[in-house]
Amino acid sequence: MQNSPLVGVVMGSNSDWDIMKNACDILKEFGVPFEAQVVSAHRMPDEMFRYAETAQERRLKVIIAGAGGAAHLPGMLAAKTVVPVLGVPIPSRYLRGEDSLLSIVQMPKGVPVATFAIGEAGAGNAALFAIEMLAAAGCEEMKDKISAFRRAQNEKARNMVLPL
Asked: Which residues are paired to 115 by β-bridges?
């Protein structure tokens, strides 16, 4: 794998890091080059647009965007790039992330954002989905690693013992 980032991991605030680090941990585990940074849709819109507009020329293959509350970041990025955007709803204080989920999943026809579960599971699955996208695009190393990951999951589940 090359060293320049293939995946961008962005979030609206550093308070989203506790959730989004789950995506970064999986990308690290699989050896996927990535970049991670705060790109706020509301507090830094010019930088957000620049990030989206330059994603393809910077050779990003996918963007994982975590956002809470109004959660405009994934959709606004998707509106400004053809690089696939994977949205991760961040749990919010008052509505437990349901507001974030609905904001991300309800994109208008023509501006797709693949939306994942609220919180840690969503961040982790977004990273795994990004790896599957790299594998499907012909990255043999990722194909081998994601296959081995699935085999290990299967083995772990088969070896589970219930405390009867």
From this structure: 87
Q: What does the alpha-carbon distance between residue 66 and residue 115 come to, in Å, rounded to a whole number?
A: 10
Averaged pLDDT of the chain: 96
Inter-CA distances, 18 with 7, 11, 62, 119, 121, Å: 18, 11, 21, 9, 12
* Amino acid at residue number 76: M
Q: Give the Cα separation of 7 and 63 in Å (integer).
A: 6
pTM beyond 0.85, yes or no: yes
Q: Summarize the confidence of residues 53-70 as an average pLDDT.
A: 96
User: Strand (E) positions, the chain?
Assistant: 7-11, 34-38, 62-68, 85-90, 114-115
What pLDDT, in 10s, does the model give residues 99-143? 999 999 999 999 999 999 999 999 999 999 999 999 999 999 999
* Residue 127 vs residues 31, 111, 153: alpha-carbon distances, Å: 12, 21, 16
Contact between 122 and 89 (Cβ < 8 Å): yes
Strand order in the sheet with 62-68: 34-38, 7-11, 62-68, 85-90, 114-115
- pLDDT for the residue 29: 97
